């Protein structure tokens, strides 16, 4: 086992030793065959991998195989010059086969092979490696930002983020290594041409001076040895060059190159028919080989017609199966609803429901390798950790009546939001509006209303280099869904959810639950308080603190709104962490005059507290709030209004009719070690 583990080390040391140690022809023949075999294995491997990183050791293999070829070239040159052109059967066989009895023509063919490899394949692979390395390194910041965006939105987990970052790092290192490794292939081609010239010239001189051979015999012997030696090194070098070009041009795919070529080239059978017709027209050119042309044309057209017929048969079969299935479903549906009890099952509404056009179904169907459900599971976990409540099951349905690229989000049976995505495209967002313009289909990101463009996968890396945040279509849907759920979670908190949450608390602290509910506060009022908190985005994860606060104040206060305010003050650390940046918070304060007006307008009845305030005053307050927010929008991204504790609930109820997302906090809801920076003041006058 240890021998296998150190096999590569032993092979490299042996290769270096070949440069110094003379080899007998028998061993040299074996090493030439081994070199060709290794090169063939590498070439075939590059054709069967799904992505470049599946063969990440390729740059190192490139170095090892290049070193082996140079070592064999040196060994063969030693034998050619010291053994009268006899350097083994492999070299003699290759040389005699290519020369074909004509030394000049054979040597020209050999030179053409070397030049084609050097100028076309090796030079092209080198250029592709340079460009790939540069674009991969330039795209790294954009890819990192995309990973951070997915992680913050809950689209991926920490482990997945680490794996994607590692993949980006590996890609950068791979293409960077390939950029340097292709120089080895280029140098190897140059060295092969120089060695061929040395073998021919030096061999001719040695044969005539030391061997006493005639000029024609010298040229014949040493041309065969030179061409044979060149070919046994150039054939594996050519395969390695092709493998190099193959791996740097290979895009990541779910299949290997053979499957991709077959699926993509034969995906449009009408192209084969048209190509066959066009090629058949060449048979009418005077002097053209009609037999060969018509044979190829018939083969192409025939293959195209066979593929077209198969696709039509498949479509007809699919339609027939669908009609049969539809008839069976209609018959079984009538029988099913004959039982009146089954009708009651369809009158309920789902808490959360999403409908998709048919183009989006592969993205959400697990049977089609869609991972939408997995993304929902990850979001449910992250949301539970952040807010302390578990979102209910999301019901997924197809809807043939909507746009194929459209989806609809429903809460309790009613449409709340909808959006449209393009399958196979990426959404490029430029929040700062400072990036270079790119080509794409203009759109509006559905979750946040940011302007963006749908771009193809080919433009993805360029967009990331320009600073755009690039998101795939599935992430757009998941982000939109998550934002809608966050905004409407207070509507989804059911009585059953409350019981489940209380049972969970009872496992660790049964006393607090038994003392407060239902002795001090009822389940219904407790639900109202939690709904109030969720409605303003306050997490309810610390249920023990919430219950303790209700136990302290619930006996004397029955107003759920006021109890909510006491709970908010208890959760000030949570609120502070949610809205502060570091050790400070930037706020807009409410003038004392406005607070006095609001307090004087508060009236109570048997249903709770309401504001009896002049509509003109309300309009003035709203205008002043809007004016301050617009004035300070360049300083703060999210405006926070700070009021006194007794006014907060009334001002929030007043302003949420006009600005539902505006955050209103009281002094008692901010931790004492946080510095409050008042950057604006809302006044009725001035």
What does this structure look like?
It is a single chain. By secondary structure, this protein is α/β, with parallel strands linked by helices. It is 63% helix and 10% strand. The chain has helices at 2-5, 7-18, 25-48, 58-82, 89-99, 103-152, 158-209, 215-249, 257-265, 269-281, 290-336, 340-343, 361-364, 372-387, 460-465, 473-492, 495-506, 510-516, 523-535, 543-553, 560-570, 572-579, 592-601, 615-631, 645-655, and strands spanning 352-356, 394-398, 406-411, 414-420, 426-429, 441-444, 451-455, 469-472, 584-590, 602-605, 608-611, 640-643, 663-666, 675-682. The protein is elongated. It starts with a helix and ends with a strand. The model has no long low-confidence stretch (mean pLDDT 78). Pfam families: FHIPEP (PF00771).
From the spread of the alpha carbons, the general shape counts as: elongated
Question: How helix-rich are the residues, as a percent range?
Answer: 55-70%
Question: How many individual helices?
Answer: 25
Question: Sheet bearing the most strands, described?
Answer: 4 strands, mixed
Function: Required for formation of the rod structure of the flagellar apparatus. Together with FliI and FliH, may constitute the export apparatus of flagellin.
InterPro entries: FHIPEP_1, FHIPEP_3, FHIPEP_4, FHIPEP_CS, FlhA, T3SS_FHIPEP
Membrane topology: Multi-pass membrane protein
Keywords: Bacterial flagellum biogenesis, Bacterial flagellum protein export, Cell membrane, Cell projection, Cilium, Flagellum, Membrane, Protein transport, Transmembrane, Transmembrane helix, Transport
